[in-house]
Amino acid sequence: MEKRSSFTGKIGFIMAAAGSAVGLGNIWRFPYLAAQYGGGMFLLVYLCLAVTFGFALMAAEIAIGRKTGLSAIEAFGKLNKKWTFLGYIAAIVPAIILPYYSVIGGWVAKYLWVFVSGSGNAAANSEYFETFIGAAQEPLAWFALFIGATALIVLFGVEKGIEKVSKIMMPVLVVLSVGIAVYAVCMEGAMEGVKYYFVPNFEHFSVKTVLAAMGQLFYSMSLAMGIMITYGSYMKKENSIESSVGHIEIFDTGIAFIAGLMIIPAIYAVGNPNTDLKTGPGLMFVILPKLFAQMPGGQIIGAAFFLMVLFAALTSSISLMETVVSVFMDKFRCGRKIACVLVLVLCAILGIPSSFGNGIWASVTIIGLTFLDFFDFISNSVLMPIVAFFTCIFVGYVIKPQSLVDEIETGNMKFKKRGLFTIVIKYFAPICIVAILASSVFDVIYKLITGSSWL
Ligand code: PHE
Predict the structure, then answer these.
(1) Which residue among 40, 232, 344, 364 is least enclosed by CB atoms within 10 Å?
(2) Helix (H, G, I), strand (E, B) or coil at 161
(3) CA atoms lying within 13 Å on the CB side of residue 253
(4) How far is the CA of 116 from the centre of ligand 1 (A)?
(5) Residue 267, CA distances (Å) to 38, 261, 290, 436 in order
(6) At residue 369, what are phi and psi to the nearest 5 degrees?
(7) Residue 189, SS3?
(8) In Å, what is the CA distance from 214 to each residue of 47, 211, 223?
(9) Which ranges of 295-428 would DSSP assign to H, the alpha helix?
(10) Nearest-atom index, ligand 1, CA of 319
């Protein structure tokens, strides 16, 4: 068998995994969920889950990958034949996410264009975003551009080049976001928003908040879809899994946190909290142009910001598409080109309704959700928790946590948080996931029957 190439050193591994992890999940998704699910309460639940669940699951996935040297589909099967199915369920997740991820990537590209072409101020108008996504062709064209660019990069195998560029872009994104967040927080009226974002209000605690935070955690850290297993398979034995996970986690959570600080206080300063907090997926596109319109040099900063976000989105969409393409290549025994074409067809089938779903098909809903929200719900709130649950059962009771602890401790490395790891994997995570999943499935059924929510 061909020897697996590996990342050059620990920094190489961390940067590659962070490139996959940091993306629209942090900048686009985290702030609108935090706004919607009670600000400080959401932030608190998210942070608690990140240091327990997030840490344990990421360490487990990377260790499974490094131990087996295989990608998710084969890794579970190699460790135990009966568990091959888990690799397959994990592989479905990126295939559902990629199409709608590209729709949002298209929105980012559009806003980059708006700012570059000097019409950023027009986008500050409240109706601008609605008009944009309400039209049929334009969002579709940007979606096609985004997925087309991703496919070309994957097809010609120039990810390395993109990764190099993104290594420069990421620090710029961080600096820029911190600057924008500081400006936003200092605006008149923003303090109310800072309070909303930082101070947990226990009235906002609900099962839905926990489910949303958990789904967001998996999504943002690229967990529960086999991706970190693949990354782990390329990791060298002499690098520490524990400290790498720590770094990726701090980086990923840090960027999401700053994005929230950029957007939520701004809702109170330039938007209307009564309506904007519940905006959902459009939030960043509605609020940020208003913020940039008031900022000195805002048009240039806006252009630079959307450029960085576009790069962060591209490194993530490449990682998503790469995963789906390699699954297709293995399963259909076809070449890279054909696999890319098949993935594009899939993206068209799922992506076009997602794009229309916010505009001309807004009235078409499945279990009360538009297409984009529906795909988002199925992947984040249903499939990922299921994959995470089975991964915990698999590690906790089939191969036993000790086998991964041994992997993490390879070469006399000390696994400091092994106690936490074992408890989370065996008890805490599976029990929480079952409780949350059961109540949310019950809620969907309850809603279908009675028309109102139980939670
Ligand atoms: N984690 C990425 C984000 O936050 C999304 C992603 C998920 C990318 C899975 C690759 C794989 O945007």
Answers:
(1) 364
(2) helix
(3) 20
(4) 26
(5) 14, 10, 9, 30
(6) -115, 145
(7) coil
(8) 10, 5, 11
(9) 298-331, 336-356, 371-377, 384-393, 401-408, 418-423
(10) 10
Question: Does residue 405 have a pLDDT over 50?
Answer: yes
Pocket of ligand 1 (CB under 6 A): 20-21, 23-26, 94, 219-220, 222, 225, 227, 316, 319-320
- Taking CA atoms only, the protein residue closest to ligand 1 atom 7 is 222
Give the whole-angstrom CA distance, residue 246 versus residue 265: 28
Nearest Cα neighbor of 227 from 107, 324, 333 is 324
Token pair listed for 205: 């605690």
DSSP structure class, residue 39: T
How far apart are the CA of 21 and the centre of ligand 1, in A?
5
DSSP state of 366: B
355: alpha, beta or left, given left = phi > 0 and alpha = psi -120 to 50?
Answer: alpha
For 150-195, list the strands marked E by DSSP.
Answer: none
pTM to 2 decimal places: 0.92
Cα–Cα dist 210/204, whole Å: 10
Residue 27 CA to residue 289 CA, distance in Å, equals 15
Tell the residue number behind the tokens 């029957």, with chain if given. Answer: 449
Ligand 1 atom with minimal separation from the 93 CA: 9
**20-36, pLDDT tens digit by residue?**
899 999 999 999 999 99
With CA atoms as reference, report the closest residue to 330 among 73, 97, 87: 73
The conformation of residue 270, written as its DSSP 8-state character, comes to H
Q: Is the pLDDT of residue 344 over 70?
A: yes
Q: Using alpha carbons only, give the angle 384, 169, 34 rounded to the nearest 5 degrees.
A: 40
* Closest of 345, 323, 251 to residue 23, by C-alpha: 251
Q: Per the structure block, which two tokens stand in for 359? A: 């505009």
Residues 441 and 434: their CA atoms lie apart, in Å, by: 10
CA 304 to chain centre: 22
Helices 207-220, 40-49: crossing angle, 10 deg rounding? 60
Region 234-240: what's the mean pLDDT?
90
pLDDT value of residue 2: 44
Strand partners, 369: 366
pLDDT of residue 1: 39
- Whether residue 100 contacts residue 146, with contact meaning beta carbons closer than 8 Å, is answered with no
Distance 99 CA to ligand 1 centre (A): 12
Q: Which helix (H) or strand (E) holds 153?
A: helix 137-155
Distance, first Cα to last Cα, the chain = 52
At residue 89, the 3 state secondary structure works out as helix
